[in-house]
Amino acid sequence: MVFFSFSFSLLPNNLVPTSPPSPYTIFQSHRTISSQFQVRFRRRSFRRGRGARVMVDGGGDEEMGTMARTEMTGFLPSRNSPVSGKTEIITQDIEEETVGSDKRKSRNFCGPVKLFGVEMSPDNVAVSIVYFVQGVLGLARLAVSFYLKDDLHLNPAETAVISGVSALPWLIKPLYGFISDSIPLFGYRRRSYLFLSGLLGALSWGLMATMVDSKYDAAICILLGSLSVAFSDVVVDSMVVERARGESQSTSGSLQSLCWGSSAFGGIVSSYFSGSLVDAYGVRFVFAVTAFLPLMTSAVAVLVKEQSSYTMGPNLSLLNSSFYANSKKNIINLWDAVKQPNIFLPTLFIFLWQATPHSDSAMFFYTTNKLGFTPEFLGRVKLVTSMASLAGVGLYNGFLKSVPLRKIFLLTTIFGSVLGMTQVILVTGLNRQMGISDEWFAIGDSLILTVLGQASFMPVLVLAAKLCPQGMEATLFATLMSVSNAGSVSGGLLGAGLTQIFGVTKDNFDHLSLLIIVCNLSSLLPLPLLHLLPKQNPDSADSTDPSKSN
């Protein structure tokens, strides 16, 4: 699918759920669409009448509270106390009714805070902040690009190798899900890994700001930074899946919208400063600022409500036996889940949908080498696409989350293919003949395609979350996202091959228009396989029932 005009990041945008990812790189998501605004959820059941609230989260915790309390005492004198006459009794009745009414109104106005229709519980706040950090880490993307090109003087081939290396952590996400599901660290399966992921990210960017001075050191640090984001992404994804299980697609869509909305907001914040900070202070300064951002992930780990399984001192033999037992169990469960038709067939479609070639790299070289777009302007384009990604999430959350998946994929794929052809106008210069500058046309083109791309990615995240069975949320969801990421990488490789075939280089763009046309038409190829997706009403809670899915 060709939705985004440009791809400026070395840390793949949805190989990295960080900022609003490109539909070619975002799949996995978002972050999901996801997930491109993609916080996670707590399912609550309220038992009224005895003043008790049972709150069940994905970790199995139960907390008892008094939120459902219906009795009001201490406000009025007892109705059985002596009174002087009928007038006083009537007055007391009126006062009691008034106080009760005021109490009910107060209770209505002081309800829980919601965003995208999701209650902002501590868990959901933590997930939204983690996704915000993923988005705001885009601050360093342009800095990395210019550091590799200008400071280390790497050629395009070497830069491509480092870019490929940075994508590796996103292709083995099931491993992180397996570790998180199977091996509690310090008694916790989610909280501990979030904390350590933040520290790893801070370390990697701190080294980039102070000590890195070779391409090998840079590759290692970029890899560690990507690993930090990928691992934290798997952890929060598992939290979302735990809370989305059994919910309708509409509810799951609201949760994914909150996640990817947070990511897109972070992308907006970072995009505004990314280009100007590089010009004003240099890349090392940007790396130093970026090093503080992952610490937010470590800080919010304490908000995650999770029951500790660490009830005794460490026992190495018990830990090893538990590890092997859980390993065997999770591998068997993963295989049993993946081979089910209602999981395998939609996953196959998602891979093929993502694996269509695109011309992002060729367009990047064209806009920088031919049109002369500056880093400052590229930062502004990134700001526009971040805002457009947020709009795309809003479009899905407001109008599309109750629409059947097949219809969403059909319409967005067709419109995306047609609108993607507008890049030909930029390449041929027709926009200038119409009185539109290259800069303004590029901004408008990126805005429209990003909105459509984000809206089309959100149902992918919803579908992936609903496919995951209980007990292996992190592992299976990460597997599905890795398959999506693998499709994105495959699409990039196919696009690179077509670029070579058409003879498009950093200086020769004679056949770039033909490359764009072929890539956009190829995005229509998966449409005959839409029957692999569930067809029933997506709002049904059992929409992934194997007997009803296809």
TrEMBL record:
Gene3D superfamilies: MFS general substrate transporter like domains. GO terms for molecular function: folic acid transmembrane transporter activity. Keywords: Membrane, Transmembrane, Transmembrane helix, Transport. Pfam families: BT1. It is a multi-pass membrane protein. It comes from the Eukaryota. The chain crosses the membrane at residues 191-210, 216-236, 257-275, 281-304, 377-396, 408-428, 440-464, 476-502, 514-533. InterPro entries: BT1 (IPR039309), FBT (IPR004324), MFS_trans_sf (IPR036259). It is found in: Membrane. Belongs to the major facilitator superfamily. Folate-biopterin transporter (TC 2.A.71) family. GO terms for biological process: folate transmembrane transport. The keyword Metal-binding does not apply. SUPFAM superfamilies: MFS general substrate transporter. This is Folate-biopterin transporter 1, chloroplastic. GO terms for cellular component: membrane.
